[in-house]
Structures are given as C-alpha cells and as structure tokens.
Amino acid sequence: MLELKTVLLFVATAVAEIVGCYLPYLWLKKDAPVWVLLPAAASLAVFAWLLTLHPLAAGRVYAAYGGVYVSVAIVWLWLVDGVRPSLWDWFGVAVCLFGMAIIMFAPRHVSP
Questions:
Q1: Is pLDDT at 111 greater than 70 in this prediction?
Q2: pLDDT by residue (tens digit) across 14-23?
Q3: Helix axis angle, 87-105 relative to 2-29, nearest 10°?
C-alpha cells in the first residue's frame, strides 16, 4: 500500500509541476492571457508542498520523483499536446519507472 501511495503522490506532484510550467509557456508562446500565471504559481506552490509529504530523505525523493516526472510528461505529450509517443518514448518511461522503483523501494539497512 505504501508503494501505491508513493506512486500516486509522485503523479500528483508531476501534474502540479507540469501545469505550473505549461501555463506560463502558453502565455509566452501561445498568446494565452496573463491571468494564467496565477494558477501557474498556485500549481507550483502545490508541487513544492506535495514534495514535502514524502517520509524519506529529500534527495532520494527528488531523485526518484524525476523518473515519475518523465513518465507523466510523456503522457502529457500524448494527451495534451496531441503527439503520440514512440516505442522508444515508452521504453524510456519503463526505464525511468524501474529506476524510481529501485530508488524508492529497495531494502534499506539503517545504521545506528
């Protein structure tokens, strides 16, 4: 159950980060109204808060989160940008998720 909670928290964190970055992109490159910067800032604040909810050391969380971020970004590419990912994109997602699983769920020996 901890593994599922961790992965879902990472996915929510990635969505918050992508939205927080995508909205300013729309404003800068696609002529979106300036008000989109307000939800972008809020989304980035939620992103930072979500990262604090993990019980492990921050460096380990950030490293593992990167694998989930890459995966969510590829799904975003498909669903939002309308670009179908290639087989190589999906292979990269698998590698990233495997790396995340090793970092987050490997057995740890705690020294006194």
A1: no
A2: 999 999 999 9
A3: 130
Neighbours of 101 (CB within 10 A): 15
Q: Give Cα separations from 61 to 29, 41, 55, 111 (angstroms).
A: 32, 22, 9, 20
User: What are the counts of helices (DSSP H) followed by strands (DSSP E) for the chain?
Assistant: 4, 0
Domain limits, the chain: 2-105
Q: Which two tokens stand for residue 5?
A: 């909670």
For residue 51, which of 15, 21, 89 has the smallest C-alpha distance? 15
CA distances from 104 to 14, 94, 111 (A): 16, 15, 18
Q: How many CB atoms are located within 10 Å of the residue 72 CB?
A: 19
